[in-house]
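Support request, please re-run this one:
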Amino acid sequence: MKAKLAVLLSTLAASGAVVAQAQPAAAPAPDYTLSFNVGAVTDYRYRGISQTRLSPAIQGGVDFAHSSGFYIGTWASSIRWIKDAGGDANVEVDVYGGYKYALGAFAFDLGALRYLYPSSGLTPNPDTTEIYLAGTWGPATLKYSHAVTNLFGFADSQNSNYVDLSATIDTGFWGLTVTPHIGYQHVHNNSAASYTDWAITLGKDFGNGLTATAAYVDTDTNSYRGAENKNLGKATFVLGIKYAF
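Re-run finished. Output below.
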């Protein structure tokens, strides 16, 4: 009997019918991601205008994204323009949230963004709230942002808006991407402050969360001035580095 059992077991093993000891099931993927980022730039340009008086800035943020498409996050950067305007804030803090979803070949992003300048001391208050809608098709993204408050301290500027078109193009060479961009900032009840900005950015992903960028940025305005009458919208090159984890 023992001999027959031994022969049977050896036959089953040879045929692959002997099942290995059951392994514990892999843990399901989480329904959300939580990520962090820190970085620095040689000039913090927002919609083409320097926020740091043409000087470097340090930046960082936190993002929470759910598999359903909902997300929230916050981001901060050092700034100088509030002090140049006679205020006291030296940091910008952004808080945002929204919902991303796909519809066939298109992807959409609907959300709201609040720009905060703690203890700015300026009147009108530069704190700003915008709602936005973006649509992406292939490498191209078109975005519309609408201010539901005054825009960055401009009096009576509620309902200002910003429209921008950009694309992220993989060059197929050394992991480099090229991102052209053009945008138009309309400041309601202040046509002299409205302007067009454009940029082209070269990006490199080094892996493990490390990326670097080099951008040429320009505008068609000289109305935005900082300390020593510096033109905050003049053409410049901006270098940046960011680590995400």
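Residues 216 and 237 are 5 Å apart (CA to CA). The two ends are 62 Å apart (CA to CA).
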